[in-house]
């Protein structure tokens, strides 16, 4: 009856721990075994020969010390003489191992405290591992949360069982949040630290834009339209190179959507971040020309080291470089090559080194939809067609009288 009651109590304990901590009974049993061994070591000074078993039928633990049969005993805690062993059985020989059951109640109360602390530590470790595994699957994905608290170092975002850290370097400089605000973030890393599992998130990561377009544009999600590369200066400007894997699907038009319906929610979420949607080309010279827009480019030279030189009209130099070098900097990042800019009046082809290829403006078929620079797009009932096209930098052909 007592054993049945003991089993009933310990099963109830396991269920309670599993419900509160999400830890399986098997892990609790293992933790209790380790705790009992730790208590034994504290009581007797060693535990290298101790075994602990658990009987699922009775709900009881048993502790055994294992001693080896030897001719001459040097440590009675680990060894037993052949003479003494044969008092238990004449069959014992030197080298055999004998298990002696120990009385758990002989352990000092302080030793039992060691077992309890070990169990609590083990449960905490397992709980942290469980949380780590739960959030590890979100690495590289977007997730929504609520601003929980703020300090000079980070914004802490409540994500269920954990608070994610949005460090200052991963925040968009002009965004401001208050406690309770809902926020979407990109999970950059989930790792175990000295303080437990940590989730690090970002609002500035280029891949966050990719996930946002996958959410808004079905063709991006299913791979019909591929985002080839992204370069961002978060909160200010981004360049996104795209291509279509279906000749009937226009990559740029799909990204923008009808009257900006696909891209506008993303711009709103990022508080007005401007975006250049750029047509990909397998020809590097054409790609460099595309990524430098809205600046006009006369010619592009590609060198054997993979770098590029773009020659632009004198009045386009400032536009090609951009404010504080932003346009050419983002262009170089998104095209994955170094880009130098030279104005036409100072360019002398004889001074440049070996050229792998040259992409000339006259050899390129111009396309009005090669790049769309998207800013804030007014709603349809507020603007006419010409104003709408002008807002996304698509020129409107004027009809002749």
Keywords for this entry:
12 helices; disordered C terminus; alpha+beta; single chain; four-stranded mixed sheet; 401 residues; five-stranded mixed β-barrel
Q: Helices, strands, pairings?
A:
Blueprint: H1 2-21, H2 25-44, E1 50-55, E2 60-70, E3 79-81, H3 82-85, E4 97-102, H4 109-136, E5 142-150, E6 154-159, E7 162-167, E8 182-193, E9 196-202, H5 206-216, H6 218-221, E10 225-233, E11 237-244, H7 251-256, H8 264-269, E12 274-279, H9 284-292, E13 299-303, E14 308-312, H10 317-321, H11 326-335, E15 339-343, E16 355-360, E17 371-374, H12 385-391
Parallel strand pairs: 2-3, 7-9, 11-12, 14-15
Antiparallel strand pairs: 1-2, 2-4, 5-6, 5-8, 6-7, 8-9, 10-11, 12-17, 13-14, 13-16
Structure in words:
This protein is an alpha+beta fold. Helices cover 32% and strands 28% of the residues. The chain contains twelve helices and 17 strands. It has helices at 2-21, 25-44, 82-85, 109-136, 206-216, 218-221, 251-256, 264-269, 284-292, 317-321, 326-335, 385-391, and strands spanning 50-55, 60-70, 79-81, 97-102, 142-150, 154-159, 162-167, 182-193, 196-202, 225-233, 237-244, 274-279, 299-303, 308-312, 339-343, 355-360, 371-374. The strands form four sheets. A five-stranded mixed beta barrel has the order 5-6-7-9-8. A hairpin with a 4-residue loop joins strand 1 and strand 2 (60-70). Helix 2 packs antiparallel against helix 4. The chain starts with a helix and ends in a 10-residue tail after the last helix. 27% of the residues are buried. Mean pLDDT is 82; it is low at 362-401.
């Amino acid at each position: 009856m007592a054993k049945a009651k003991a089993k009933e109590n310990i099963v109830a304990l396991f269920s309670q721990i599993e419900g509160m901590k999400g830890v399986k009974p098997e892990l609790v049993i293992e933790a209790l075994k380790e705790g009992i061994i730790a208590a034994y070591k504290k009581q007797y000074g060693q535990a290298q020969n101790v075994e602990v078993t658990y009987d699922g039928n009775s709900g009881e633990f048993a502790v055994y010390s294992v001693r080896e049969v030897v001719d001459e005993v040097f440590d009675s805690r680990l060894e037993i003489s052949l003479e003494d062993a044969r008092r238990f059985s004449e069959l014992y020989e030197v080298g055999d191992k004998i298990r002696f059951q120990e009385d758990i109640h002989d352990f000092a109360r302080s030793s039992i405290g060691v077992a309890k602390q070990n169990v609590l530590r083990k449960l905490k470790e397992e709980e942290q591992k469980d949380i780590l595994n739960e959030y590890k699957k979100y690495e590289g994905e977007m997730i929504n949360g609520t601003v929980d608290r703020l300090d000079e170092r980070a914004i802490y975002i409540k994500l269920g069982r954990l608070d994610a850290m949005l460090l200052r370097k991963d925040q968009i400089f002009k965004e401001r949040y208050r406690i309770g605000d809902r926020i979407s973030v990109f999970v950059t890393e989930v790792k175990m630290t000295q303080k437990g599992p940590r989730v690090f998130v970002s609002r500035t990561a280029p891949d966050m834009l990719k996930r946002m377009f996958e959410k808004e544009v079905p063709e991006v999600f299913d791979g019909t339209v591929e985002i080839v590369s992204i370069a961002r200066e978060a909160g200010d400007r981004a360049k996104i190179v795209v291509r279509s894997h279906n000749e009937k699907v226009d990559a740029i038009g799909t990204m923008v959507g009808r009257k900006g319906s696909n891209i506008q929610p993303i711009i709103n979420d990022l508080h007005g971040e401007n975006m250049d949607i750029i047509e990909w080309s397998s020809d590097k010279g054409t790609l460099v020309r595309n990524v430098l827009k809205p600046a006009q480019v006369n010619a592009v030279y590609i060198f054997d080291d993979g770098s590029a030189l773009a020659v632009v009209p004198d009045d386009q130099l400032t536009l090609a470089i951009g404010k504080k070098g932003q346009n050419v900097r983002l262009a170089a990042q998104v095209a994955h090559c170094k880009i130098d800019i030279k104005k036409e009046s100072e360019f002398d082809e004889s001074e440049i080194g070996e050229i792998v290829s040259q992409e000339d403006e006259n050899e390129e078929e111009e396309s009005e939809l090669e790049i769309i620079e998207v800013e804030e797009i007014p709603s349809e009932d507020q603007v006419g067609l010409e104003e709408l096209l002008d807002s996304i930098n698509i020129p409107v052909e004027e009809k002749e009288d």
